[in-house]
Write a structure and sequence with these properties.
This protein is α/β, with parallel strands linked by helices. It contains four helices and seven strands; from the N terminus they run βαβαββααβββ. The protein has a single domain, classed as P-loop containing nucleotide triphosphate hydrolases (Rossmann fold, 3-Layer(aba) Sandwich). The protein has a seven-stranded mixed β-sheet with strand order 1-7-6-2-5-4-3, with helices on one face. Helix 1 packs across helix 2.
């Protein structure tokens, strides 16, 4: 599914629809986020968090790598936001107990720069790519949402 995003309101509408469609699994629900710097991965993560009831400010965990937020949503008890931009190898995720996190069915895990640890991403991760492009001298974002991660 492809969606063209021209405004923040469009992105908010996409986030709203995306969150409504989330279905928990028998293990963590993982969302692999892809896109160049500035494409909107963190902004989308913030909007998803807001729709799930996170009240604190959600910032990119670029330097801390991972941040967890408690949720009151009936489907998930926590949102885990991970930014792999600074990760140089899959081994660095072992310290964060990433594999254990994937076993938690109450966790919704948003992974920015997921391609940097593609070997560790579950095959059933929800794959969201954000591509910026120029459309008649206006920068728009095209979001491609696929129900399976592509390594």
């Amino acid at each position: 599914m492809k969606t063209t995003i021209s405004t923040l309101a469009d992105l908010e509408q996409f986030a709203d629809s995306f969150v409504k469609a989330l279905v928990p699994r028998n293990w963590a629900t993982v969302v692999a986020l892809h896109g160049e710097l500035g494409a909107g991965k963190t902004t989308l993560s913030q909007m998803i968090a807001k729709r799930l009831g996170v009240e604190e400010t959600v910032q990119s965990p670029t330097f801390v790598i991972m941040k967890s937020y408690p949720l009151t949503d009936p489907r998930f008890t926590k949102l885990v936001h991970i930014d792999l931009y600074r990760i140089e190898s899959d081994n660095e995720l072992e310290v964060l107990k990433f594999n254990e996190l994937l076993l938690d069915p109450t966790a919704l895990v948003l992974v920015e720069w997921a391609e940097r640890a593609s070997a560790l991403m579950p095959r059933d991760a929800l794959d969201v790519s954000i591509e910026m492009r120029d459309e008649n001298a206006v920068m728009v974002r095209e979001i491609t949402y696929v129900r399976q991660f592509k390594a």
